[in-house]
Amino acid sequence: MAFGFFGSLLILSLLFKHLTCQLPNTDEFYVSNFLKKMGLNSSMSYNFTGSVCSWKGMHCDTKKENLIGLKASSLGLSGIIPDTTIGKLAKLQSLDLSSNKITALPSDIWSLGSLKWLNLSSNQISGSLPNNVGNFGLLEVIDLSGNNFSGEIPATVTSLLSLQVLNLAGNGFEWSIPRGILNCKALVSVDLSSNRLNGSLPDGFGAAFPKLKTLNLARNEIHGLDTDFAELMSLTSLNISRNLFKGSVMGVFQGQLKVIDLSMNQFQGHISKVQFNSTYKWSHLVYLDLSENQLGGEISLNLSQAQNLRHLNLAYNRFAIHKFPRIEMLLGLEYLNLSKTNLIGHIPGEISQLSILHTLDVSSNRLSGQIPSLANKSLKVLDVSHNNLSGEIPVSLLEKLPLMERYNFSYNNLTLCALGFSPETFKTAFYGSSDSCPIAANPVLIERRGNGHKGLKLALALTLSTVCLLAGLLILAFGCRRKSRKWVVKQPSYKEEQHISGPFSFQTDSTTWVADVKQATSVPVVIFEKPLLNITFADLLSATSNFDRGTLLAEGKFGPVYRGFLPGGIHVAVKVLVHGS
Q: Which spans of this chain does the record mark as coiled coil (predicted)?
């Protein structure tokens, strides 16, 4: 009897052990079930064989017993995360499911009390953020940016005492920032940008975060004053653009700030007062955007001390009329926007010293004079529209336009040749400019030909030979003409205008000739009814404005023909033979 009883007990014990071994209660099962239900099957890119600790993106503890890290970003996971999957990973400390197409979270995910790092950014999760987020008492980083969360930021964030990084950007969170956030004194970075937050910042906001280095509240409807940030002495980056903040910018320039973006708010006062803030170290400043506020005074910031400044935007304010500020000392400047800042005078040529400048916008001002050469090799965006600029656009600048991303010269009094630009480009980027090519104008992009210098030498050599031959024939003709000169004098005096057809369509006074020479030595040339003259290469350069495109009459099969004026008002046409023609 006793043996039978114990034998039955042993059989039941073994059977129970066998059944429990088959229960799907391991981390490996939960993870594989999660990935497969979210659309990821075993394939060449992801292998479910072997221990879960060896799977891609998985990290186990030192004993290889529990999964403590799961990274499944950018795997194409989609849909609702089912319960009894990742919510059962009791020892999980780090979870990264970013850049997928997840639409909802499981109810048991909020039971992961060991979680320190949670990244669900760039998904499609919608609905409100549950109050259960307060269960993550050990959480240090939470990134829910780029989703469709809505409603209030739960007040239970006050329980996240270890939280260092809070990123809720790019959602639809509404109402005001909860006061409970002031309890998260370990915060180093806060990004609540691009939501629908409104109201004011909680009282004591600045004093609550002694370790805060980055604060981004951009693109909301938050009210506040410059004094709200007065005690954030560890702050290095502040972006409160596109909100409803008021006050003086002077109160913001303090501490160790490197990035300051106050654009599109309601700040007032004279910007010149900023320079009297002796506590701020301008050498720290890298990025400054004060655009679209109500600032006045003159632009007289301590720019000479901001040697590390990379980005400067003061556009659309109410500054007093003033000349272009001195910026030539900002050799590291990459972006400069002074549009609609009441600038007068000229664009300084020293701006060409800013070798890494890629964006220059001085539109909608009262600038006059000519555009400087702007030899900045990195220039990609240029806007000088809506000014009183005049004269010719430098050739060196026009040569860069095909390589630039955007440019606008419209609504000025500029002159240029539209050759090389489509009608659409000329209409949009040069609207209001004069489309003409006057003699001695240099506003066009000159086509540079390979080996042009060598080819030109050969062309000139051929030209000299031709000129010498023609000179001999013309001397003979000139001698015959001298014999009949006495008869010509006796004829009734009259002056007959002649007109040359074809490409040489201009008036002449019997002094028109065609010369083809470009050599730095004197060459005898016969001119009708004129004595022999010695023409040098320098004379031809001067006569044709350095063979400028504006003096081009025609381009034939054998090379271009330029129109010029020699001393004494003599009209000439110079043909340059092209190598290989």
A: none
